[in-house]
Specification:
The protein has five helices and no strands. By secondary structure, it is mostly helical. The two termini are about 25 Å apart.
């Protein structure tokens, strides 16, 4: 999924291009065809549609949150409006102020309660419907590679060493981009 943060337009484009990769490569590329034939792939390229739409209005290109009318005055887009959908999920909601805020004027405002936002509710309904094994959440800010549990900024996870080994480094990438060495027989996965 992508575009939980409205201003991260390139995240939506990354999702769209990933989808296009599978659609256009199906039938012509054995690796892609095998993946599509043996898995169920879902693409939610705009997970925050009202916030995303708002970034196209004059003066609002950098809006990050959804368009929740937090003060109930009927005007949306005021500094105290909006909820960060990425921080509204119930898991670890309100645990601390390390990765989210209780302040409605903050760009990381978590919302008034867990799962309070329509975007969060829609994503959770999808998760309830489909038994996902893996999810990739595209963002385009901060040039970071994040891994679970990402609800805190400065507290490492118990599995940090594993995630760091899987991520690789700039000098030694963990992801090999070489079609010739790839085994398309994915039956062992």
């Amino acid at each position: 999924n992508a575009l939980q943060h409205a201003r991260e337009w390139l995240a939506g484009e990354t999702c769209r291009r990933s989808l296009d990769y599978f659609v256009t490569g199906y039938g012509d590329n054995a690796r892609i065809t095998r993946l599509v034939d043996t898995r169920e792939l879902w693409f939610v390229c705009v997970a925050n549609p009202d916030g995303y739409e708002y970034t196209f209005t004059p003066g609002n290109r950098l809006w990050r949150k959804n368009m929740a009318d937090n003060d109930g005055d009927g005007v949306r887009g005021e500094p105290n409006d909006g909820v960060d959908p990425n921080r509204n999920f119930a898991t670890n909601w309100g645990l601390d102020e390390e990765g989210a805020s209780n302040d409605p004027t903050s760009e990381t405002y978590r919302g008034p309660s867990p799962d309070s936002e329509p975007e969060t509710k829609a994503m959770k309904k999808l998760w309830d419907r489909v038994d996902f094994v893996f999810q990739k959440n595209d963002h385009t800010a901060a040039e970071l590679l994040l891994w679970p549990q990402g609800f805190q900024k400065f507290t490492p996870t118990p599995d940090n060493a594993i995630f760091e080994a899987l991520a690789g480094t700039d000098a030694n990438s963990a992801i090999k981009d070489d079609e010739e060495t790839f085994d398309p027989d994915l039956s062992s996965e």
